Amino acid sequence: MSDVPPSGPLYVTRPDLPSLDEFIPYLREIWRSKILTNGGPFHQKFEEELSKYLGVRYIALFTNATIGLVTALQALRITGEVITTPYSFVATAHSLIWNGIKPVFVDVDPVTFNLDPAKIEAAITPQTTAIMPVHCYGHPCDVDRIQAIADTYGLKVIYDAAHAFGVKCHCGSVLTHGDLSVLSFHATKVFTTFEGGAIICGNDKIRQRINYLKNFGFADEVTVVAPGINGKMSEFNAALGLLQLKGVDRALARRQAIDARYRTLLAQVRGLRCLLPTGETVSNHAYFPILVQPDYPLSRDDLYDKFRGRNVLVRRYFYPLISEFPMYRGLPSAASSNLPNASRLSRQVLCLPIYPALTDDEVDRVVDILLTE
Ligand SMILES: *Cc1c(COP(=O)(O)O)cnc(C)c1O
User: Fold this and answer.
1) Has domain 20-243 been given CATH number 3.40.640.10?
2) Residue 32: exposed, middle, or buried by beta-carbon count in 10 A (0-12, 13-18, 19+)?
3) How many angstroms does the Cα of residue 321 sit away from the middle of ligand 1?
4) From ligand 1's centre to the CA of 1, what distance in Å?
5) Fewest CB within 10 angstroms: 23, 191, 207, 311, which?
6) What three-state secondary structure class fits 266?
């Protein structure tokens, strides 16, 4: 089980690193070829294998998801206002601010934790150009209803799919919906290259523009076609990704077993509610959120402290809401009266440890902490 990190920097530790012995040959290959970055052989191979694995048309690898989101907005020339969710990691809204776009927060559905499609239309103004939903915890958004609204109003849809690696909904990979989807391979995610991310794209022209934008706008050695950024993934990270892909199905299967064990053990506990699977045909069990309700003997924060006191790393994802941070709370859409579901979920949620190396005994220990005074 994860230890509480030392005070000071917020380190991210990872109990299920790929084996170093297996990674050495990849490193040797990098040292042999001396190709370190800028779309080298590991980068090319990882893009190919990843698109096959995920069942998507095009992938552009990135240095991280945040630069991926910033670039996705640039690629589609999004301006003005974008409708998004307050119940996410801050990078979702930050990517809008970095493009000079005004985020407009819309409340989430209390069952799926995702942007509530029924509330989107009321937030559309003449300045609205796009919707940026999040597949929260890897549960698919209502992609059909969101697309119908986007089509009616001529809006683009960019999914923050940071949680949605490998998730499938009724019509295949959830990543094929909307105009673009952005994955994260950060160390805390289901699939990791330490730092990394990718934009998923179905359109060859947009893919070309994304590839220019992530490399300063260079089309060739002397031609710069756009004010690009440096979003490239290095050979080191791409090699790590290729190695991770080999074990990903085993890792996902173990996550599923842990999820099932938690559900069985927690089914009868008064005051705790597990999220129901919502709409995915294949889920990735990226998180195991529970809601601590008023009839549970402890408040959510007391329960959080109790876990921390026993060296169990539980997380309050997502608390505070994005709309509560100082750079957002002045927006009219950030008022908690506009976001009642997100506000309540954010005060009740606790994400329990879930990762492939977690043993059944450790799951039982987590559950014991929930059951005992
Ligand atoms: C992790 C995360 C990001 C940021 O990803 P990075 O790869 O760390 O930049 C963005 N959005 C959501 C919802 C995330 O969970």
Assistant:
1) yes
2) exposed
3) 15
4) 23
5) 311
6) helix
Question: Which residues are near ligand 1 (CB < 6 Å)?
Answer: 64-66, 88-89, 91-92, 134, 160, 162-163, 184, 186, 197
Partner residues linked to 223 by β-bridges = 220
The number of helix segments (H) and strand segments (E) in the chain equals 10, 14
Q: What is the DSSP letter of 101?
A: P
- To the question of pTM greater than 0.85 for the whole model, the response is yes
* Ligand 1 atom showing the smallest separation from residue 64 Cα: 7
Judge contact between 43 and 160, C-beta under 8 A.
Answer: no
Q: Which residue has the tokens 């409708």?
A: 83
36-68 residue pLDDT tens: 999 999 999 999 999 999 999 999 999 999 999
Residues 366, 368: Cα–Cα separation, whole Å: 5
Mean pLDDT of 321-350: 98
DSSP 215: B
Over residues 164-176, mean pLDDT: 93
* HSE-up of residue 214 (Cα within 13 Å, Cβ side): 28
CB-CB contact of 75 with 206 (8 Å)? yes
Superfamily for domain range 249-371: Aspartate Aminotransferase, domain 1 (3.90.1150.10)
pLDDT of residue 22: 95
Separation CA 370–CA 20 (nearest Å): 35
